[in-house]
């Protein structure tokens, strides 16, 4: 069999797999969203400790704090940990604490984000639920109410929020907005299929008792949220205990403004994910009945397979474009663009968006694949950099949880 035929068959198989994943993901995600509509209002019996670790966040910290204090759910406290900020963050928090009794401010020497969260959870939190919120992000006013509903189920241990990008102003920021909407759309499917393994840091919520049982956050990771989720899953399993996604709990975060900073952010994410997976590699291909087989034998191994495919993605793209140009057959390209157009439309129609924002996104939908390919390029560069440092990642040589902020 000729090499060209083999490559064509491989590309076809990968395309069918990608299409199947998107279609199944959309169908299951819609079921998850319908299930969310059936949830009744909680009885206010959960107490939240909203933990906000902060380092040099003077520009946005007020908006963050106020968004929590204005929640329509009454049973909560806010614990802001100033981790040795060198700007006015500490002073701003102290002024806010004088005005708002629900706000407690903790000052400590700079030790990193994980340590800041641990300080709040171990020494200050009184709630049965802990929500961690980044100091540059903010919540919809009903976020705690809707998150509380999820924890009426005693088997729920951790839930991620539906994170959206705030108002974009340039092309790269619009790319991130579309990416977040499409990416989070599929997280509902991950919960139902039992393959959720990342409870993202913005608005992530856990039972405090469970957090204390596993020893809270480790302080050797630059992506503390991925590492902590894997740590919780390793300990509790994910078959009887649930780690999921609250699609109706909306949190907002500012986009990264330029290519260099976005590359810095995505390298940190990819580096941290590799590190967490190698650190908790005993879960992969694990037959223990406390884990779903869909996680241990499908999702986690597939992460490495997808990274391998991403590594050769430029070659596959060049091959496809060569075939298209050589035979003047644009059916493949049109099919790919059409698939992502349908995916985008299905996402933008069902999301709760303002009319003006919905119109802009619907106009963007035909270019969804091209928009996401910008992120692919950044992810590819991040992957190459990770491979260069893979020995240090596997051996956990960089034991640090230092702040690595990007310009907003």
What would you call the shape? globular
Strand order of the largest sheet: 3-2-1-4-7-6-8-5
Tally of domains: 1
Low-confidence stretches: none
| Beta-strand fraction estimate | 5-15%
| Number of DSSP-assigned strands | 8
Radius of gyration: 22 Å
Spatial gap, N to C terminus: 52 Å
Primary descriptors:
alpha/beta, single chain, 408 residues
Topology:
Blueprint lengths: L2 H35 L10 E7 L6 H9 L6 E8 L5 H11 L3 E6 L4 H11 L5 E4 L5 E2 L3 H8 L5 E10 L5 H15 L1 H7 L10 E4 H6 L10 H13 L5 E12 L5 H21 L13 H19 L1 H15 L3 H20 L4 H10 L3 H21 L1 H5 L14
Parallel strand pairs: 1-2, 1-4, 2-3, 6-8
Antiparallel strand pairs: 4-7, 5-8, 6-7
Helix pairs in contact: 1-7, 1-13, 6-13, 6-15, 9-10, 10-15
Give a quick summary of the entry.
Helices cover 55% and strands 13% of the residues. The chain has 408 residues and is α/β, with parallel strands linked by helices. The mean pLDDT is 86.
How would you sum up this structure, described in words?
This protein has 408 residues and is an alpha/beta fold. It has one domain. It is built from 16 helices and 8 strands. Strands 3-2-1-4-7-6-8-5 form an 8-stranded mixed sheet, sandwiched between helices. Strand 1, helix 2 (61-69) and strand 2 form a beta-alpha-beta unit. The N and C termini lie far apart (52 Å). The mean pLDDT is 86. InterPro entries: Glyco_trans_2-like, Nucleotide-diphossugar_trans. Residues 49-211 form the Glycosyltransferase 2-like domain. It comes from Limosilactobacillus alvi.
